[in-house]
Known about the structure:
The chain has helices spanning 48-55, 78-83, 101-105, 120-131, 149-162, 179-194, 206-212, 235-243, 296-303, 326-332, 341-345, 352-357, 361-364, 372-385, 402-415, 432-447, 459-465, 488-495; strands spanning 10-19, 22-32, 37-41, 63-68, 71-73, 86-89, 112-113, 117-118, 167-171, 198-202, 215-220, 223-229, 260-269, 273-281, 285-289, 311-316, 319-320, 334-337, 420-424, 451-455, 468-473, 476-482. The protein is an alpha/beta fold. The protein is globular and about 80 Å long.
Amino acid sequence: MTDAPKPPRLSLSGISKAFPGVQALQGVSFEVAAGEVHALIGENGAGKSTLLKILSGVYHASEGEIRIDGTARQIPSPRAARLMGIALIHQELQQVPELTVTQNMFLGNQYTRLALFTDRRRMSAQARAVLAQLDPTIDVDAPIRGLRVAQRQVVEIAKALLADARIIAMDEPTSSLTPTEFDRLTKVIDGLAARGVAVIYVSHKLDEVFRVASRATVLRDGRLVGHANLRATSENELVGMMVGRALETIHRASHARAQVLLAAQGLSRGAAVRDVSFELRAGEILGIAGLVGAGRTELVRLVAGLDRPSAGTVTMKGRAVKPGSPRAAIAAGIALLPEDRKKEGIVPLRPVTANVALPQLGRLARLGLLNLGSIRATVSALTRQVALRPADIDRPIRLFSGGNQQKAIICRWLMAKADVLIFDEPTRGIDVGAKSEIYQLIEALAAEGRAIIVVSSELPEILRLADRVIVMRRGQAAGLLGREDLSEAAVMRIAV
């Protein structure tokens, strides 16, 4: 007599979720077996995050059933989800900057002695042991605010591993990780699967999806499109399922002109940036590549005036720009679209109109009064130009997808008539379809004669966009590659 087959570790059947005026999910079903890595993919707004929030007890489904190891379960709260062995790694970092790495990892779940005293030694030891699997260089006693974005993402992953969960959902876990850190994560995921953990993996990076997962569930507009065996499905087929259309192929042409708009000479700031010089021409797209921590973001922050250099100068159209002054940089025509869009790029609760007009409010005011009708007309025209969706400029910007938030920030600097646009990780957390649109916007801006700097951890992005690439290593410009010399291998040889 043979044993009856085991039920899936997780089964979701007919899951629907409605908000006032919005049907976020409609009849979604899929299963994940114990020891399986299952990808959940789709464009922003497809319903992936809503589905994970239902699984983790943040939202309650309007309809449908959840079964864990064959037993129907209600998940009324995040605490209930944790007790059932469900852990969620959030895309947006859920951390308290003033607390240490260990304190963040054990937030709400501290170890105690005699039921009275926090057992700091035991928590530190456990945190150190888990982080050793991912990044042993992270100091568990350091305040988390001092860590790089990539390191903070690693801490979030480690926090989920602490729970020893049977089901782990990872929502864009590698949005800020280097290739080396991703390699470490894949080994951890393989280890979890070997122990029978069911892993749900959400990512816009399809190369990662094919590397870590065996099957995928595809959502579009809150509905189930289908399931795919990734061993028998091509990337193009998967993209077609996700977006429901063929993506436009762009034939890259350089728009670089002779005029030098911006020049940096001997820029330095401690060990982070050391004696970096370059020129940027009108219509040129200059890529800045290198490993995380090589000084890429630190360099563009100096150019944009967010940090004061210890040495060196920035000139715009031959005129010196006051160092360490964002206001002076903006006035000179230099604009930065920051890496951490939600923290540094937008005012989340304010509408698109206010976010786009923000740097120009002083210039637009007459006798202390704003012509709101004129501002709205300008913002509306700009958002049509970049195809903002939905086309509602009165909607709070936090309710837009990452790609459309990025479009709104582009509109801000178009309104400010910036001649140099610096994109730091322009498509971080943005889906496949929106990435294509952002690329088209960047190239259109270059065609108009604006100069573009693109900082990216994704080498295919750099190779697609850039006319030239500066490769950073340990704070220095270790190499400069022209388009004819560009390849992933050439960049990595210099970067490492």
